[in-house]
Amino acid sequence: MTKPFRFAVQATRAASAGQWVDLARKVEDLGYSTLFLADHYLGKGSASKQARWPPQHFAPLTAMATAAAVTTTLRVGCRVFCVDYHVPAVLVKEAATLDLLSDGRLEFGLGAGWSAPEYRAMGVRFAEAASRVDKLEEVIALYKAHAAGDPLEIDGEFVTAQGYAGSPEPVQKPHPPLMIGGSRQRVLGLAGREADIASISTVPFDPVDDRGRTPHQEAVRRTAHVRAAAGERFGELDIESSPFFTAVTADRAGAVDRIAAIVGAPAETLIDHPNVLIGTAAEISDRLVERRDTLGVNYLSIQQSEIESFAPVVARLAGQ
User: What pLDDT sits at residue 199?
Assistant: First the structure.
């Protein structure tokens, strides 16, 4: 089973109500499936520099609700909610509410968290990775139980929800599509077993990593972990990835050289890198079909700066 292509936009740069509304409508008009935010909260300052993440003006839940309210078909999501930043019972109720109010257009991403500087800046304890993934597993179980509408009797190490039933009932059944992403075997296996959308995250730009893998080999490894855990349901999953660098251009060599200078990687590494797409719309379209065959990736999240330049690729492949 070959999943059709879908395309999303990862947005962080809107700074006013008007800019955000215009952006949501443009993303919808250009044929993208989904508008994603990220679950980050730091404004400009030393903490955001340490975290190496650009300031994001809007908190995701409110921005997602606004984007859904001013569009009709656009799906909305967060890529992905960090389970440590939210009270689990509150977060899953917010998700169900947003799915209902958007008439079933929510995609719900969950992750174990990764940015120690952001945790420190907000006064959140950054536990060991194993503990953070343990918590992620419990929040996933709560999310699915809450969506079922049955009485909740959950008393875990990290999650408590007792003596009430989940409400409201979400529009999408059995629950809004769940995205889980990561790079390590445990989280990728969890995505294979539990998610509807498995994100394989950005792979390193080194020609060969510390385990001797090229970027393409590392992406293959990640997909293989998802496939092994998913079993027969693998063909039902969306496999999502994000091109970190995108350039729709006839001057492929020039674009490769510019990006190589930015990341400090050899140009030959970037040409086939799983998170780089450079070339004409036709060349990129062919590359994406090839990557769907080899990596399973059918769902691409494009950076906000590339919305218009990448639109011809969306027009060629969306739904195909």
Answer: 95
Residue-wise pLDDT for 186-229, tens only, equals 999 999 999 999 999 889 899 998 899 999 999 999 999 999 99
CA 225 to chain centre: 18
Verify cis geometry, omega within 30 degrees of 0, for the bond prior to 256.
Answer: no
Say if residues 270 and 278 touch (Cβ distance below 8 Å).
yes
Buried b (16+ CB within 10 A) or exposed e, 217-233: ebbbbbbebbbebbeee
With a CB cutoff of 8 Å and minimum separation 6, the contacts of 180 are 80, 109, 110, 111, 136, 140, 187, 190, 191, 194, 195, 197, 198, 199
Tell me how crowded residue 268 is: count the other CB atoms within 10 A of its CB.
11
- C-alpha angle 269-303-206 in degrees, rounded to nearest 5: 20
**Residue 118, token pair as written in the block:** 């952001």
d(Cα 167, Cα 50) in Å, to the nearest integer?
Answer: 39
Do 122 and 41 touch, CB atoms closer than 8 A? yes
Q: What is the pLDDT of residues 228-282, one digit of tens each?
A: 999 999 999 999 999 989 999 999 999 999 999 988 888 888 888 999 999 999 9
User: For the whole model, what pTM was predicted?
Assistant: 0.95
Cα–Cα dist 281/296, whole Å = 20
| Cα–Cα distance measured from residue 117 to residue 123, given in angstroms and rounded to the nearest whole number | 10
